Amino acid sequence: MNRRSMAMTSMGLELLSKKPYSPPSWASHLNPLPSHIFSLAHLPTPIHPWNIPNLPPNTHLWIKRDDLSGMQLSGNKVRKLEFLMADAVAQGADSIITIGGIQSNHCRATAVAAKYLNLDCFLILRTSRHLVDQDPGLVGNLLVERLLGADVHLISKEDYSKFGSLTLTNILKEMLIKQGRRPYVIPVGGSNSLGTWGYIEAVRELEQQIQSGSGNVKFDDIVVACGSGGTIAGLSLGSSLSTLKARVHAFSVCDDPDYFHNFAQDLLDGLKAGVNSRDIVHIQNAKGLGYAMNTSEELNFVKEVAEATGVVLDPVYSGKAAYAMLKDMSENPKKWEGRNILFIHTGGLLGLYDKVDQLASFVGNWQRMDLGESVPRQDGIGKMF
């Protein structure tokens, strides 16, 4: 590639392009292999030291900023969508259906990706039975989805639990087909065997970053939040197959570790990977009060990390994972001592807007500016006056 081509690529002229996909050599035995990928994310995402206080002795922590993979499409979801949207277009879809919680980052990212590719988007969003018949509002991810014109269908948590995501998306799919539409269904979190390639490919990116870096850092551990299972399946498989060989630690923010081990196993089996999920990823429970529910300690932790390091975590995924990681480090320091650890920030900052009432007591650092009587008076200038 000449210098001009490199400059054009760095300027993002490949964004929204569909390209043939060639897997990393160490993943070429997996089956089926994706044929194409859509360039949707701003990659590679940066890695930098993360100076959180009170780590165990000689423990070094870095963070990979997948929250910076694009403002509207930010986070881990976009990596999966690069493969899923390519498949949707290849199948001639004119619309996308997906499903998640009322503040689902995945649903927001899917709505953005769909509109980028001139597809309609239909979202099934899970909410309280008390709110299912009300306007869901314009907070956080909902604001983006509704600005984009996504078609929002609300379902109560009880009905979601009773029927399940597969049945609900299929009901909507059949309804659209009867209307002459060609819908493509993306599962919760984009977590199926095809979506798993998002983080297999992310491992190749990580390999290249390490090889081209000047610090010669080798990561012993990778830490990430787990909410639907696709990210940990791809990340742990990629780490085990590649030169990385880092131990993947997942902190689950819903369900339980056994569920995610079994779910990840299904995804791995779907790729004919021939590995046991329990051999390549360690999963710990970090759901606390429940999915998308936070204790005051968790939210205060998010505020303290932002104040200490400049990194803003989301309350649903990375905030809970980092909180649980630090708690584990405090309780089991020998497990982490002397390790080089990479934490992957999976995005979701728009979810913070849903927590403003709970956060208010932690961020009261404001006051009216005191000008005093001795300050000389003069007329302000500029267009704002």
Automatic annotation (TrEMBL):
Keywords (A to Z) from UniProt: Pyridoxal phosphate
Annotated GO MF terms: D-cysteine desulfhydrase activity
Tryptophan synthase beta chain-like PALP domain segment(s): 40-347
Active site feature: 104
Cofactor: pyridoxal 5'-phosphate
Modification N6-(pyridoxal phosphate)lysine occurs at: 77
Pfam families, alphabetized: PALP
Key word Repressor present: no
Family label: Belongs to the ACC deaminase/D-cysteine desulfhydrase family.
Protein name in the entry: Tryptophan synthase beta chain-like PALP domain-containing protein
